[in-house]
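Hey, resending since the last one bounced:
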Amino acid sequence: MSRHEKLLLRISSAPKDFTWSELVGLMSSLGVELRTSGGSARRFINPATAQVFYIHQPHPRSILKPYQVHGAVKFLKQEGFIA
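The C-alpha cells again:
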C-alpha cells in the first residue's frame, strides 16, 4: 500500500490529528494543485475537473480542525478519489 493510499484511508476515518503537511502531500500525490491567496487562504484545484476546495492553512499549529478534515473528505469523495 502506497503512502497516498494510507493517507486516503487515514483521512477517511476523520482523525483529530491530521496535519496540513499530510493534506498537502495527499492532494499533491493525487494531482490536485495548491494555490495560495492572501493571508492563510488556500485553494486546492483539481485540473482535470476544475473543481476547487477552499481552506485556511491552520496556524500556529498545523493540525486541521474537524470541519476542515470533513471538507477535505467531501471534496475527495466528490472528485472520485474516495469511494
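The helical segments are 3-12, 20-29, 66-78.

Sorry for the duplicate.
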